[in-house]
Amino acid sequence: MHNKTIAELIQGLRNKEFTSRELTQHYLDRIERLDSKYNSFITVTKDSALDQADAADQRLAAGDAPPLCGVPIAHKDIFCTDGVRTSCGSKMLENFVPPYSATVVENYLAQGAVMLGKTNMDEFAMGSSNESSYFGAVKNPWNTDCVPGGSSGGSAVCVAAQLAPAATATDTGGSIRQPAALCGLTGLKPTYGRVSRWGMIAFASSLDQAGPMTRTAEDAAIMLNAMASFDSKDSTCIEHDVPDYTAELNNSLDGLTIGVPTEYFGEGLNPAIATAVNAAIETYKKLGANIKEITLPHTDLSVPAYYVIAPAECSANLSRFDGVRYGHRCEDPKDLNDLYCRSRAEGFGDEVKRRILVGAYALSSGYYDAYYSKAQKVRRLIKQDFVDAFDPAKAGVDIILGPTTPNPAFAFGAKSADPVAMYLEDIYTIATNLAGLPAMSLPCGLIESENGELPVGLQLIGNYFDEARLLNVAHQFQQVTDFHQQTAPGIA
Amino acid sequence: MEWETVIGLEVHVQLNTATKIFSGASTAFGAEPNTQACAIDLAMPGTLPVVNAEAYRKAVMFGLAIDAGIAKRSVFDRKNYFYPDLPKGYQTTQLDIPIVGPGHIDLQLGEGNTKRVRIHHAHLEEDAGKSLHEDFHGMSGIDLNRAGTPLIEVVSEPDMNNSVEAVAFAKQLHSIVTSIGICDGKMAQGSMRFDVNISVRPKGQEKLGTRTETKNLNSFKFMEEAIALEVERQIDILEDGGSIAQETRLYNSDAKTSKSMRSKEEANDYRYFPCPDLLPVEIDDDFIEAVRKQLPELPAERQARFVDTYKLSEYDASLLSASADLAHFFEAAADSDAKLAANWIMGEVSARLNAEDKVIAESPVSGEMLGGMIARLKDNTISSKQAKQVFEGMWKSEGDADAVIEKRGLKQVSDTGALEGMVDAVLTANAAMVEDYKNTDESKRKKKLGGFMGQIMKASKGQANPQMINQILMKKLNELM
Amino acid sequence: MAVDRSEIEKLAVLARIEMTDEAAEQVASSISDVLKLVDQLQAADTDGVAPMAHPMDAVQRLRLDEVSERDQREKFQAIAPATENGLYLVPKVID
Known about the structure:
The complex is a heterotrimer. Helices cover about 40% and strands about 15% of the residues of chain A. Chain A is of the alpha/beta class. In chain A, strands 4-6-5-10-11-9-7-8 form an eight-stranded mixed sheet. Chain B has helices spanning about 55-65, 165-180, 220-240, 260-265, 285-295, 300-310, 315-320, 325-335, 340-355, 365-380, 385-395, 400-410, 415-430, 430-440, 445-460, 465-480; strands at about 5-15, 50, 75, 75-80, 90-95, 105-110, 115-125, 130-135, 140-145, 150-155, 190-200, 210-215, 250, 255-260, 275, 280. In chain B, helix 13 (about 415-430) packs across helix 16. The longest helix of chain B is centred in the middle third of the chain and has 20 residues, at about 220-240. Chain C has a two-stranded antiparallel sheet. In chain C, helix 1 (about 5-15) crosses helix 2. Chain C is flat and about 55 Å long. Chain C starts with a helix and ends with a strand. Classes of the chains: A alpha/beta, B alpha+beta, C alpha+beta. Chains in contact: A-B, A-C, B-C. The interface of B and C includes residues 34, 37, 39 and 279 of B. Strand 2 of chain B pairs parallel with strand 1 of chain C, so a sheet runs across the interface.
């Protein structure tokens, strides 16, 4: 059962090949048996999962159940779940049980999807390797000595190891796409504002966006159908119709214009990845697409701009963790200042502290213009690059294509001592967060590396709210390739 | 040396919306601690703000009331600092693009003495919670019910030169926000709180002195006291050759002292930046014009109308138009004699309210009741002396003027026959006084009348109509000459 | 731009994060690396470019002024480190 896609599980449940309870039990058994190897879950909600499965079976039996009814999924531990511990990968929230659920969680509950548990992640979603989790690193199933990417490493690995058929995740600078690439999955970051941020613990509010982590583009479309909604509780959520994202999956790519940015193939790109991505370009040509070389001239500035804007926002967003109303509180504070300083020093890990301090620096008097304001101006230039690329009067492309990451999965510890090296792993993903565009990563090959055979991700970037086309372009690729069907060694 | 004081005010005005500025929690005063603090107000992880339309509308209305520019696009910023009454660790406020731009408020400082105070801007922001310092085993208790209550912070230019002007400004602002119905004006509940920036400089010097800010004054009286204290403190320091430290001070209204709040301000850097959870608010001319149409009569307009309609002096009109409640009270009482109504309100009514520490809305005598009493004065049913007793009765809830007159038997005797009888009786009984009157030089006779009047009033138990008695007495005495 | 230990200590005070001298030294070095990275921004020509705080050109929706929240104090305070009589407790606040 665990090698089936969501689309197949939906059919299986309706054809009574298995019940949701059987399916759920099967996944729970696998998690129990195998996850000690991967550490992809922080919390497994066994009892409530089985209760939800029973309820789903009743709904399925009654007929007219929503598509995801009875399908087990996992939620990144950044989404608040009413009554279920939500840690955000941090000691700060080690014992935090929210009294409310995220809109994303509510949306899946409404469909009757079953929650298997909460997945491991970099602390407060700050990281590209999952090594910053208070609950220990997540291991990549392709090579357990390697990182799975981050911050949604647990969501990626639980799907890659087939401990869940799909998982929710979030992407602030590549946190869905990069682990999807490093684990051989399909990951989608929707347009900013497409999915509600209510109840999703904020890292950088103007960049954070939730999306699905799946094995196929079709599954991503099914997951996004449930996840996307307009939510009046999130001021930045855009009032925009939610189409059926599966409707256009089978459209022909004949005449489609795919832009390939020069800047995404420059120095720093692993040659084997370049080869795999170029092969994907050839595949698209065969599918009828026109390939057009384009330029996104401010790409180099995206990492610097991001590492001002994201820390600045996070430095304020994380001030609420003060040991007063919830979360970690130090023992015997001697005064108010001690309560704050020690609770936060004990509750946050090094990377979180580093970003809070960088953010405080970028906003402090005397530096605001040189850093924060400058980064915001550069952000507009970066967005304009994309607007020009999609503008029919200019480059006029429909989709932008490139690699998701410059390198495949790296070994634990390889970059953790050098934050800048780690940050540069997100060089191709960050710009779309700054611009708010939808983008996805899908497997486009396996390459030989110093860490053995590892998957490679192909990144597709769409125009605003053009997720349906993005999914169509990815799905068509998956109709003629089998990279997405390859599983890590030892997964059976 | 002669010193000049320069004062600017920053006033926090709580908007009387039903819910918080960024959440749907109630703003009602006096609830049990933390029962009106929802997940957003508590800054629970993952919660997000959405702007209250009514708070925005009321801020725009204030801008229109002070003739200020309204920003068609305004932005919310985060002001970062840690304090237990500030759950998010930042206050959401407006720094660069506030909703209300420059405007002005005109003060009536006395008959024919007005002053214009410029308003630099007013911005929307959220209130903080409260720290309760009763002892919880050496701890403080935090109540976040007030956290997120919408405020406008009104920032004046340093256009005032003494506490009289500062208090007049504060009162006029109070009058405006209560008149347009955006604030309940309840000072004791903290609905308006004043921060006073004070500096002094040698008279004639252009350059401003170093200023201090005395924070969180919540009554006109405390403000007056705090200004006097601070001005004196600064002048003392300067005359002793010292210099003023730019600092925030806290006034203790019990001890009548103030102290520096160095802890809170020490090396603070608020690191303002635009709040990424909120988008710019945009409004158009239609919105502004719609709010303008809803704008009730402003105190200044009302003052002009009172002068025009009721023939009051500028000064009386400014006092009576200061608050909507007072103005309504006056207009209800003014039917038969506006001037008399005005005198009663500024005299007896206001003295009683002050003595009992009540506001006009709490007066047991309504404007209508006062008007009813004045009508009885005008139609001679009661004398002005009796009116005092009628008022007393109404204040003690004995009923309206007619009921009190009836109950207390206060009707004035105005029957000519009865009054003539009384006068005759007194004249007969006091033949010596009559003789004395006759022998007095005509120019000085008027002085002698008082004696007769007293006797007659006494005989009538005070109920005789004094004007009529006066006429009858004159007539009778003339007949005896 | 490089930052030194004393600057890190100032930032740590602003951010209310306790830091030992040793940690401050280390953090100063790694943050200097990060600042070197972000200093690339200074080379960008941003004349006449307006800062962009949000990816979308959207405007704020306004909410109706209707009470939508009920009292959940008990639920909220069940996860609080210290409360008494409905109040959150903190070490004495000195104004």
